[in-house]
Amino acid sequence: MVDLNLDKTTGGEVRELLLQLLGSTFALYLKTLGIHWNVKGGNFHGIHMWTDEQYESLQDDVDAIGERIVQLGGRAPATFEEMSHLSQVQLVREFRDTSAMLRALADDHALLVRLARKISQLAASASDSGTTSLLDSFIQSHEKLIWMLSKSIE
């Protein structure tokens, strides 16, 4: 393992929080995929296509976060069971309507942003620019989705 010259204590805390972000992002990926498959109604096509873009982007996020955990000397979980224990996102079997689906996605993206900000602040205090850089773009893209989802349900 190459030493990235980061504070071991803070680096361990960053890794632990990144694991939570990974599990939560993976859960939101699954939730978004479920909505993509099960959306109904007059705006089916638009939401179906939009959630297609969203779950593909979340898949990229999962990969980037998992790789960062390994770069920091950790082990990225590789089972659904491990991921579900790490997640703060609640999976839902069924939604009553499209607005509830979109509201749930906006709330979950906001959860990811709050967690990413917390990790970014901790990483910045350890001069971990690799993690802060990753999270800056993560936060920006999820904030944009929160805005778009929120405007879609007004």
Q: What would you note in describing this structure?
A:
The chain has 5 helices and no strands. The chain has 154 residues and is mainly α. It has a single domain (8-152), classed as Ferritin, CATH 1.20.1260. Helix 1 packs antiparallel against helix 2 (44-71) and helix 4 packs antiparallel against helix 5 (129-152). The chain is elongated and about 50 Å long.
The CATH architecture designation is Up-down Bundle
Helical residue percent band: over 70%
User: Poorly predicted ranges (pLDDT <50, ≥5 residues)?
Assistant: none
Mean pLDDT: 92
Alpha-beta classification: mainly alpha
Could you name the CATH topology? Ferritin
The biggest sheet, with number of strands, parallel, antiparallel or mixed sense and barrel status, is: none
Q: Provide a count of the helices.
A: 5
CATH superfamily descriptor:
Ferritin, core subunit, four-helix bundle
CATH class: Mainly Alpha
Spell out the key features of this protein.
mainly alpha; 5 helices; Ferritin; 154 residues
Topology:
Layout: H1 8-38, H2 44-71, H3 80-86, H4 98-125, H5 129-152
